[in-house]
Amino acid sequence: MYYDAYVTQDSKAVIFADDSNFFISSDTAEEAQIKGQKLIDNLNEWSQINDLIINTSKTQAIVFKAKGKQVENFCLKSGDDPVNFVDHVCLLGIIFSSDLSWNHHVNALVKKLSTINGIMFRIRSYIPPAIKLQIYYSLFYSHIFYCLLVYGTLTQTAMEKIVLQQKKFVRSIINAPRLEHTNPIFNNFKILKMKNLFDFKLSRCIHQSHKSSSKYLQLCNIRYSFLSSYNIRNVSTYSVPFLRQEYLKQSLAYRAPILLNNIPDEIQRCVSACTLKHKLKQHFLDAI
What we know:
The chain is about 50% helix and about 10% strand. By secondary structure, the protein is mainly α. Helix 2 (about 105-125) runs antiparallel to helix 3 and helix 2 (about 105-125) runs parallel beside helix 5. It folds into three domains: about 10-85, no CATH class; about 105-190, no CATH class; about 195-285, no CATH class. A hairpin with a 2-residue loop joins strand 7 (about 90) and strand 8. The strands form four sheets. A two-stranded antiparallel sheet has the order 1-2. The protein has a two-stranded parallel sheet with strand order 3-6. The longest helix is centred in the N-terminal third of the chain and has 21 residues, at about 30-50.
């Protein structure tokens, strides 16, 4: 569906099939409400001109704000019907929360992974490890790897919930006891841990961005370190910004330079994407 520039003049439209999403940014809640109401009025006018009807029962709005900040008296109307405000929304399989956390998405993901683990526990004595490994990559791995670069900057507490489910599945591969150490299993079957999957995917995306001059590098804001004339003991290739808040340390601008500084130059100089993939995976497996 195509919207005229008149409709989206104060917003950014993200359209997938018949699902339309509009994003508005502003410094104050009052300004956001004015822009939002103007957008809805423009959409209603555009729909009437094109003989379309907006289903207000399926129309939702969400206010993204800092955690703990309250936004009161925020109201939008589509004609005479009020727009329903929610605290989280699902977009292409990713659940975005109004407080910019990933708690809702992690809880939904853990519920899926727990179901898979329950099924695997019941049948683990009837299938060989090779088949279990195929089930892992087809059912389990596909869920955690999907859009990992979007939600992968979650907190350590939320990460541990997914790690726990991954360890349960890995133990089921060899029918190991509940408290069995999983590091040897990860190494034996060459399975990357959840905490390394984000770094693995981010490294590959940065490598691909260098080759294609993608705008993805601008999100990482990667800068080279200042070269000192003095003999410094520890010299990092990429500059890591100084950030006080732990929340800001989840950003790509902070995590990408740290990641690249810990990856050997031999791997970063790989030209082939396939070679980089294999060497990166072995690099993270050696760190287990």
